[in-house]
Each structure stands twice: as structure tokens, then as C-alpha cells.
Write a structure and sequence with these properties.
The protein contains 3 helices and 25 strands.
Length: about 210
């Protein structure tokens, strides 16, 4: 088995630990050693394991180690992935056993992605690096995503959609077919995107409208 740890020991970190357990129940793959977290003291424990230290400890870890970033903020994911510079650390893709791939051979995927339970990935999909697909997300045919995107539970990304970097999609959000989502776009829960989005913008509603403060 390969050693694995989670960065982030909060609620989402516990969910990632559960995902690792489910993967191991199907095929024994990972030896979970604990958490790294700069917001909690070394030695802090939850039911799944202890905090081994922060970024500094992770960067000085002396053995090969897989790391999963358990943070649901695109900007924080991007920042953390850049701060982890230990050459012995690598970022696997963590995929729930019951994810449905319509044509897995046609899918392209980078590193550090987490795909949770009951997601559905259609054909000719390309996923970049450090994306989070929460439970029951659907990606249609020919969807392309960049990096550091967080897609909330039960969201639907229709076919031929192109998604940039560091976007956040709230719970049960929907993007209609063939649209382009920019960078650092935030889509509110339950919102339906019917037009291309602008960078650094917030969209809410059905149909979703850009909100300017």
C-alpha cells in the first residue's frame, strides 16, 4: 500500500478520509497516516487520525507521500498546491468506486482531482488539476475544465461546456450546453447559467444574473 495523508482536518477532511476507506474496501490501495493542517495544533485528533503538522512539516517529510487537499475554496486550493514543494510529495486523483464513466478511455485527467460518490462523467471529458467534484455531479460530453474548480453536490455541467480556472459552483447549480465559464466565477446554489460568464463575477438565480456590489 502507498502512504497517503490529507491536508485539512476539518469536516471535508473527514469526508476525504471516508472516501479513502471506501476505496480501500474495494481494492486495498492506501495506508492513511493522518492529516496536515496549519490551523490546528500538532497532535489534534479526530476519529480518523491525528494532525502531523503543517505545511513546513509536510515539506520536510522524508518519505514518498500522496497528499489530498481537502479544502472547498478554489483560491485556497491554488495557494496550497503552490506552497507544497517537497519533491517526495505527489498528488493522486481520488475517485469514488461508484463514479459512472460512460467512456473512461476517452477521458483525460490531470493530478490532484477528487471525484466523489455517484458522479457521472460522460464521453470525451477533459479535467485539469486539483478540481473537486462533490457528490452526484454530472459532466456532459466534451466538457473541458481547467484547474482548481470546486463543483458543489448535484450540480449539472452540460455538454461542450468549457470551464476556466478557480471557479466555484454552488449546490445544484446548472450550466447549459456549449457555454464558456471564465476564471474565478462564483455561481450560487441552485443557479442556472444560460450565458457565458465573465471573470471574477458572481452569478445568482434562475436564469442566473451577474450580481454587482
Amino acid at each position: 500500500m502507498r502512504k497517503i495523508a490529507i491536508y485539512g482536518a476539518g469536516g471535508f477532511g473527514k469526508e476525504i478520509a471516508c472516501l479513502i476507506n471506501h476505496i480501500n474496501s474495494e481494492f486495498l490501495t492506501w495506508d492513511f497516516i493522518g492529516f496536515f493542517d496549519d490551523g490546528l495544533p500538532k497532535g489534534y485528533k479526530n476519529k480518523f487520525g491525528a494532525v502531523l503538522g503543517g505545511i513546513q512539516d509536510l515539506n520536510s517529510y522524508s518519505e514518498e507521500l500522496a497528499i489530498v487537499i481537502s479544502v472547498a475554496s478554489p483560491t485556497v486550493i491554488e495557494d496550497l498546491s503552490g506552497k507544497i514543494d517537497n519533491q517526495l510529495v505527489y498528488f493522486p486523483n481520488l475517485i469514488a468506486p461508484n463514479v459512472l464513466f460512460l467512456d473512461k478511455a476517452s477521458m483525460k485527467i490531470g493530478k490532484g482531482n477528487v471525484i466523489f460518490f455517484s458522479c457521472r462523467i460522460s464521453c470525451d471529458v477533459a479535467i485539469g488539476n486539483f478540481n473537486l467534484l462533490n457528490s452526484m455531479v454530472s459532466l456532459g460530453h466534451d466538457v473541458v475544465t481547467g484547474d482548481y474548480n470546486v463543483i458543489g453536490p448535484s450540480s449539472r455541467i452540460s455538454g461542450e461546456t468549457t470551464i476556466g480556472n478557480a471557479n466555484f459552483f454552488g449546490v445544484q447549480s446548472t450550466v447549459l450546453q456549449g457555454l464558456k465559464i471564465g476564471n474565478r466565477t462564483r455561481v450560487g446554489a441552485g443557479s442556472v447559467i444560460m450565458r457565458n460568464t465573465k471573470n471574477d463575477a458572481l452569478y445568482l438565480g434562475n436564469p442566473a444574473k451577474r450580481i454587482v456590489f
